[in-house]
């Protein structure tokens, strides 16, 4: 070790060039793995929020218009019924099950402000935590006429002052950019609505009139607010205006909407007798590896099944290709760096023939000579790997700064774009040391075969 370190210090220029070659190669591998890891992290984060691979959505299947009995009100073989749902609950690997009825386009009023709900789901509120919905405030209540709002539903509420300011910002307005920025920031502020009463009003579209008409208003109590999604920009969160109510309240809202549309409530009641207040069922599986098996069981009930496994598998295959491309670039650079080490160490062998000859005369064996050169190359790899780790941090930092300057992060979004996971650093260091060791094999063998007397006489 001492001899190898002394030789590296004597040949400063050659040592620096070899270290830089290995540093660039190892930094390329670290950056390549960091690219893949960052993409994988954000893809999984988006998948877990939007497309959950451990969930199954079940709807009614496709079949004839009537059942075998000829009774139009009887349950059809392909229909999603309570009996089938109770049977699915008994299937293995079912962690949680919730029925869902989707209703759209609602307006609500709280205090002197107005807001909107794009999608309202009637479901068993106690099952929300099982499906990954984290509550920021409150929770399900046994009281009637209660509602749980998403965080986005509490953002962007309008009052008279906000409406006037928005009109000023319309085309033709002459307000300053600073005022527009203040208005935008104000839209991203969540209004405190927990435990407040809101007036929920369905907005029913009338095709014959070409406009929306307000339905029967429902006074509801806000008993819960969902947690704001981490890393999602505020402008995206603000557009995710959803809410959850109990199945009983969902049935009341559905009846009120159908009555406003002129449909008979008797027909609606007859339909709800067989299928309940739901149009789909969501199932949380204990592990995503059991989704396919459970999917086959549900299909035997002649129901339509939808999962996100194929999307996740396709995304993972694309990420593997990206990692291979980035990793291949880093390995190629390390290969070029190894050639420079071989050349430098081979030249060092010719320059140090007298030293090798004297060592042999003094009793050094072939193994000791080989180890001296191998240690030198390993030290080059170690120093190059450590320098490469520092270089990779600078590269990642520079990319993050450049991206944030070219495309400023939206409010609420995660500022860090690329990151280096701790497990990547040993891999980069390992490749660097292995490059040095493998590159030193040929010079070490050549040095050990140097004839001592010939080397001394020539010098």
From TrEMBL:
Membrane topology: Multi-pass membrane protein
Keyword field contains Ligase: no
Entry keywords, A to Z: Cell membrane, Membrane, Transmembrane, Transmembrane helix
Limits of the MacB-like periplasmic core domain: 15-300
Residue ranges of domain ABC3 transporter permease C-terminal in the record: 329-451
TM segment ranges: 12-35, 324-350, 371-397, 417-442
Organism domain of life: Bacteria
Compartment(s): Cell membrane
Any Pfam family hit: MacB_PCD
Family: Belongs to the ABC-4 integral membrane protein family.
PANTHER family: ABC TRANSPORTER PERMEASE YTRF, MEMBRANE COMPONENT OF TRANSPORTER-RELATED
Name used for this protein in its record: ABC transporter permease YtrF
Organism: Paenibacillus allorhizosphaerae
């Amino acid at each position: 070790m001492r001899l190898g370190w002394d030789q590296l210090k004597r040949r400063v220029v050659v040592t620096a060039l070899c270290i830089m070659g290995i540093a660039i190669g190892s930094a390329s591998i670290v950056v390549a793995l960091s690219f893949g890891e960052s993409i994988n992290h954000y893809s999984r984060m988006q998948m877990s929020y939007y497309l959950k691979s451990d969930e199954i959505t079940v709807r009614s299947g496709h079949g004839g218009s009537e059942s075998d009995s000829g009774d139009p009100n009887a349950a059809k073989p392909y229909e999603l019924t309570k009996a089938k749902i109770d049977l699915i609950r008994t299937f293995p690997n079912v962690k949680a099950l919730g029925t869902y009825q989707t209703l759209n386009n609602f307006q609500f009023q709280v205090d002197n402000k107005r807001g909107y709900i794009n999608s309202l789901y009637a479901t068993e509120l106690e099952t929300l935590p099982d499906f990954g919905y984290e509550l920021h405030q409150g929770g399900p209540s046994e009281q009637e006429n209660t509602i749980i709002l998403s965080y986005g539903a509490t953002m962007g509420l309008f009052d008279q002052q906000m409406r006037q300011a928005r009109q000023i910002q319309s085309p033709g307005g002459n307000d300053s950019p600073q005022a527009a920025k203040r208005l935008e920031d104000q839209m991203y502020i969540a209004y405190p609505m927990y435990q407040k009463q809101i007036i929920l009003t369905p907005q029913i579209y009338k095709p014959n009139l070409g406009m929306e008409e307000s339905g029967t208003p429902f006074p509801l109590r806000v008993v819960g607010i969902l947690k704001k999604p981490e890393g999602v920009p505020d402008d995206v969160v603000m557009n995710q205006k959803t809410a959850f109510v109990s199945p009983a309240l969902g049935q009341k809202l559905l009846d009120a909407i159908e009555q406003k549309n002129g449909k008979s409530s008797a027909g609606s009641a007859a339909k709800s007798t067989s299928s309940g207040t739901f149009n789909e069922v969501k199932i949380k599986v204990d592990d995503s590896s059991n989704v396919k098996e459970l999917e086959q069981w549900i299909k035997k009930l002649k129901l339509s099944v939808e999962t996100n496994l194929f999307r996740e598998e396709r995304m993972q295959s694309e990420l593997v290709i990206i990692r291979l491309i980035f990793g291949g670039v880093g390995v190629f650079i390390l290969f070029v760096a190894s050639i420079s080490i071989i050349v430098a160490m081979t030249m060092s062998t010719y320059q140090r023939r007298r030293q090798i000859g004297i060592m042999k005369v003094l009793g050094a064996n072939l193994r000791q000579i080989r180890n001296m050169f191998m240690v030198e190359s390993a030290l080059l790899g170690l120093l190059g790997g450590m320098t490469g780790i520092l270089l990779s941090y600078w590269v990642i930092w520079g990319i993050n700064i450049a991206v944030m300057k070219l495309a400023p992060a939206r409010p609420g979004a995660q500022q860090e774009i690329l990151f280096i996971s701790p497990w990547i650093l040993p891999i980069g260091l390992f490749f660097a040391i292995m490059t040095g060791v493998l590159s030193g094999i040929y010079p070490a063998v050549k040095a050990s075969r140097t004839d001592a007397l010939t080397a001394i006489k020539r010098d």
